[in-house]
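Table S2 (continued). Query chain:
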Amino acid sequence: MNIYLFIALVLVASRQAKSWPVGIDIVQNFIVNETMNVKEFFEEQKNKVQKAFNATYEDAIRVTNRMTNYVDAQQKKISSDINNYVESVKESGRKVTDSWSYLPTEEPGAVMENPDVVLSVPGIITRHGYTCETHTVLSQGYLINVHRIPYPKSGGKISRKTVLLHHGLFASSADWILNGPDKALGYVLADAGYDVWMTNIRGNKYSKEHVTLKSDSKSFWNFSWHDVALHDVPAVIDYILKNKGEGTTINYIGHSMGTTILFAMLTLRPEYNEILKSGIALAPVAFLTDLKSPLKSLAPIASNIAYMEMLYGSHEFIPKDSVLGKMTSSCDADSVDSTLCKNVIFYICGYNEKQFDKNLLPVFLSNLGTGTSWKTAVHFAQEVMADGEFQQFDYGSKDNQKVYGTDKPPTYDLSKISLQISLIWAENDLLTSEKDVKLLYEKLPPTTKIYKVTDPEFNHLDFLWAIDAPTLVNEEVISTLNRVYSES
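Corresponding output:
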């Protein structure tokens, strides 16, 4: 109720009865007037609300129109920018087309001087017209990649006669093809009708994967050639036999450390004396009592060098980014000083200028140092210091007791070897002396053959890259294999 109407009613109620009619008129007039006022009040409020609503609606329409105009303007701008970009691309394309020819042409500097420097083993083999396969073998979690030349360059059926080649220290399957067709043993054996398998040591560039371990971990690199002999090579042999089936015969050919692995395997896994057909050891290494190479002076400190390197977290032997690896940068394939590098190799392995092919040096260096463990290098250093023993890894008397149950590491019992083996050695090989080869020969079975390369200057690496390798080494290898098969 309006407050004014309430007051009027109170005043009228206070009048005496004799004056009641007058009070009625006053109230009626008052009610009529107040009703008109209230009506006008609400009408005014209604008009204000209507006006405010209309103003808000008009403002909204104006905002909407402005937004629509803005969006339209932006769409036109974007469309214009896109059209301008497309036109600029077309113009650039016309300019490029004017300056670039899609016709076949010989671009200066585009052709590699020597593709074998940069190509992988499968790439090199394929480039030379041979078929190459890559087989992956699992051994203790390591993925060992084995490269295979299954038949001659001319093609044909895969022979049951098989050869397994194992490279030396710091090397890979590339060792067997670096010298090119007609010279490198891998090609020569393939063309002679053998199925050629070339394995890689765990940790090198072709076998640097593990199913669980990181390749930069200590656990990954905690191995020596002993582990390869005990696990990896047997796994590869088993894989070949399974792949080829019944009637397959496997002959093992190793160079340097590849021979060490053969001798160790035949003592640790004597059953492979019966599984293999024969073994050929090029530059055989078991005993290192008479090492002529200057590397002999490093043997006593090898463990300390390894320890210092491993403090930096490097368990790989001289990786390219290590302290020692950077010191060898002057002798890599990209900045090769042929005189310096050649003399370093001769100094370590034996001088032989006559058999040295300088054009092969960059190819050799690009494939050298492909990865191995410090434990492998230290194991060889221990052989130098072992007083004429061919023994397992020496952990020191305390840890030897934990590993072997004895203060000294056990020796490899060469009397367990019954496989027919041929030792091929060279007089000028500073890493494999005549004394050590003959000591090995005396400890092997009576069926063992021994052959000295006729060139008196022939050195440790000439087995892989000598100019006259076909007549000095390859012919003897083929002759030995022929004799093995003729006698069976």
